[in-house]
Amino acid sequence: MAATEASGDDVRCVRLSAERARTLLADVDTLLFDCDxxxxxxxxxxxxxxxxxxxxxxRGKRLGFITNNSSxxxxxxxxxxxxxxxxGPSGPNAGREIFGTAYxxxxxxxxxxxxxxxxxxxxLGSAALAAELEAVGVTCVGVGPEPLQGEGPSxxxxxxxxxxVRAVVVGFDPHFSYMKLTKAVRYLQQPSCLLxxxxxxxxxxxxxxxxxxxxxxxxxxxxxxAQRQADIIGKPxxxxxxxxxxxxxxxPERTVMVGDRLDTDILLGVTCGLKTVLTLTGxxxxxxxxxxxxxxxxxxKKMVPDFYVDSIADLLPALQG
Amino acid sequence: MAATEASGDDVRCVRLSAERARTLLADVDTLLFDCDxxxxxxxxxxxxxxxxxxxxxxRGKRLGFITNNSSxxxxxxxxxxxxxxxxGPSGPNAGREIFGTAYxxxxxxxxxxxxxxxxxxxxLGSAALAAELEAVGVTCVGVGPEPLQGEGPSxxxxxxxxxxVRAVVVGFDPHFSYMKLTKAVRYLQQPSCLLxxxxxxxxxxxxxxxxxxxxxxxxxxxxxxAQRQADIIGKPxxxxxxxxxxxxxxxPERTVMVGDRLDTDILLGVTCGLKTVLTLTGxxxxxxxxxxxxxxxxxxKKMVPDFYVDSIADLLPALQG
Lengths: 321, 321
Fold this sequence. Notes:
The structure is a homodimer.
Chain A: E1 14-15, H1 18-26, E2 30-33, E3 40-41, E4 44-45, H2 49-58, E5 62-67, H3 74-83, E6 98-100, H4 101-113, E7 120-124, H5 127-135, E8 139-141, H6 153-158, E9 167-170, H7 178-188, E10 194-197, E11 203-205, E12 211-213, H8 215-226, E13 231-232, H9 238-248, E14 255-259, H10 262-271, E15 275-279, H11 286-294, H12 298-301, E16 307-309, H13 316-320
Parallel strand pairs in A: 1-16, 2-5, 2-14, 5-6, 7-8, 7-9, 9-10, 10-13, 14-15, 15-16
Antiparallel strand pairs in A: 3-4, 11-12
């Protein structure tokens, strides 16, 4: 089960001992963290995690938080970090460290729809996602429940559409319905209408091993009906890292990505040339690492971190020296 | 654009002239037809199609109707065939010629859940689908709207489940919702609970080039969240042909499959060793055939029919000789 401990050029996924952590941190300016399963689970901080982040800040390291969750604004994340003891800026700068898919989707739409006089999006997602889009000037329609209107297919197709919708944005949407799917596909028949998915996660893990269906399931349904491929914002798509990079001016070689999922966090880090650390407080296990290492599939072989820790609290000894 | 007209061993997709049709029909006992886009579009029969079927019946040919549509019972289809002039048995035998995915899903569940004392299924689908399942003794739960219950993920997961659900059946369900997806995935966490999809069609074509999202979009969402692969009943899955074969005692070499879709009807026919005829009154075009013929992908190369007709009315001259 245990991943390789020995050293050597090709060795991946070694335990990040205090000594190795000291060496790693000496070469690093910026640490990017996933949130759920890394810093906290639900409303409970991972023990020792707030202290580890406080010590990193004290050493002058720059921190960033990259999350695929599209259900919270930057401000809501900043407030949670503060509340659970992870610190970070407050006041008008609160949220500056947060790169969630709601915010990054807004950056993407601003980039792609910048020329449109009144950009408008049909949003399958939360009020928080809509709030981030509205903040960059994109008018949002469709948030909330949308029950079946009319009797039968023809009537469903006759339900009125908003004019000038230039993007369909699919995020986490507990109000997802067949009627919304129908409308999304109708907007997407306009080839110039963008299809954007906040992320492709198949599941959203909760506490105690429970989970609910993730945004990826909803994106796939829309993609299949529309026969279009969505532009994906979240990890492991490079776009979310480009957002951090642009705001932080990052040197990938001096940056670490810390996460609990091989298929999103670690793959993003590997793709973008960052150093990678898997923490075992969340979704992926060392068994998953091993089966990726042994896979004959190139895309899975990439999903192996440089290092692993039982918890990010394991960084503390290296910071207290 | 035109597919090959010349003859030869490897030649596929030739126009079914009256002469070729006469030769073909002489070697054939049974003709299987898709319905929508072949016999009718919406509520309008394809001109000449009822006469062609009447002439085939008069020549003693056995007819069968294979449809992926899960929204109608066998009886409802038989009634539509009669109403639009296609004939067929009435009375207690009405529906005997119809192999729809609602009926065939019922056969599948009877086969797989036969040993269970009180088989029960969670049905994302129509009342007609449920009626076919109930007819073979499967109790159905879940049909109709299912709005979001409770505030937030934990509450959604706490919504009560029915005991002893042994299958999740995904058909065409205009009441599909995130809450239904959540429940489906919870039932499927029991590894013995079957996941059955009536079909994988990405779109359901309506009249005038309009379409709505097909059942496949809903199946994919459930598959992705549950991390399970569904057992698929409809075309191009072999199971639906096995249902016909079992009831009719079919000799594949003396059977023709007539359809308007290369990826379902024609692929089913090729897979099952039937003769295949594409009719151009529905979804697929000769351009689609050509790009399949020229594809370097083996799975697409298979989606080429032996013959094509502009409409099944083209069979008439061969039958009037």
